[in-house]
Automatic annotation (TrEMBL):
Protein's name in the database: Bifunctional protein FolD
GO cellular component: cytosol
Keyword Iron: no
Taxonomic source organism: Blattabacterium cuenoti STAT
Biological or metabolic pathway of the protein: One-carbon metabolism; tetrahydrofolate interconversion
């Protein structure tokens, strides 16, 4: 079977050009301030530092302003809450994110709850998350939005299809399960959300039309776990002996799936551009 690769890098570039045009038309021509993203990073987690650096690179690339606050590993919850309060109040910051995961001594729920939902461009605040589940307008988490946009670009129908998601994280698995199953377009997919306590995951994946893998384990999904012609979305990214691997075992899935996202160059660039799309949306909404 010929497997078509879903090119997230190319689509992200197209969206970048659209964002640049909107910034020119709606912001620069009207002599308004250009959008400004705040980023709060705590500690020295290598993956988080790499993610944040990539987000900054994308801001520079597109001409969106950014402010990075990098707090040390032993930062108190009080200090982090104060930093968030400043970003909530700042007339210059349109939207901001607190890079996750946080150190164990910080209460992640308390931190997310303290973000002004109107500036929550990650879409992680319960107000935005709840609105998303209730079919109301809100910020949608960037990876979920990136997956839907990439599927739409390749005219892959999700309505009526059976989707299996592996991984129930609040950042990827759960939001994409909500968006795919909503009574909306895109939506109307029949969704099974599997996770580390699901016995016999391949029982589900072998029946799936669409499989989204966000489990954080390199090469987790093998070709023998899927049906021929399925559509496979790989959200994972791992550095392994100078190679970059996804959550999907590319070699055994390639040739059996009809569509597959490469790693790198699939969901990663889509996630980064969707964060900036949300930042532009915040700038247009809030001023
Ligand atoms: N950590 C991994 N992905 C993300 C993301 O999309 N947003 C934030 N804030 N932290 C993350």
């Amino acid at each position: 079977m010929i497997t078509k690769l879903l090119d997230g890098r190319l689509l992200a570039k197209e969206i970048k050009n659209k964002i640049c045009k909107i910034i020119e038309k709606e912001i620069l021509n009207k002599k308004k301030r250009i959008p400004h993203l705040g980023i709060i990073l705590t500690g020295n987690n290598n993956s988080s530092i790499r993610y944040v650096n990539n987000k900054i690179k994308e801001c520079k690339n597109i001409g969106i302003k950014y402010s990075l606050v990098h707090l040390p590993i032993n930062t108190s919850e009080k200090k982090l809450l104060e930093t968030i309060k400043k970003m909530n109040k700042s007339p210059y910051i349109d939207g901001f994110i607190v890079q996750l995961p946080l150190e164990k001594h910080l209460d992640q729920n308390k931190i997310i709850l303290s973000i002004n939902p109107k500036k929550d461009v990650d879409g992680f605040h319960p107000e935005n998350f709840g609105k998303m589940a209730l079919n109301m307008k809100s910020f949608f988490p960037a990876t979920a939005l990136g997956i839907l946009t990439l599927l739409e670009k390749y005219k892959i129908q999700i309505s009526g299809k059976y989707t299996v998601i592996i991984g129930r994280s609040s950042i990827v698995g759960r939001p994409i399960s909500i968006l795919m199953s909503r009574k909306n377009n895109p939506g109307n997919s029949t969704v099974t959300l599997t996770h580390s306590k699901t016995p016999n995951i391949e029982f589900y994946t072998r029946q799936a039309d669409i499989i989204i893998v966000a489990v954080g384990i390199p090469n987790f999904l093998k070709g023998k776990m899927i049906k021929k012609g399925s559509i496979v979305i790989d959200v994972g990214i791992h550095n392994h002996e100078k190679k970059i691997l996804g959550d999907v075992d590319f070699h055994s899935v390639y040739g059996k799936a009809s569509y597959l996202t490469p790693v790198p160059g699939g969901i990663g660039p889509m996630t980064r551009i969707m964060l900036l799309k949300n930042t532009l949306k915040a700038a247009l909404n809030n001023r």
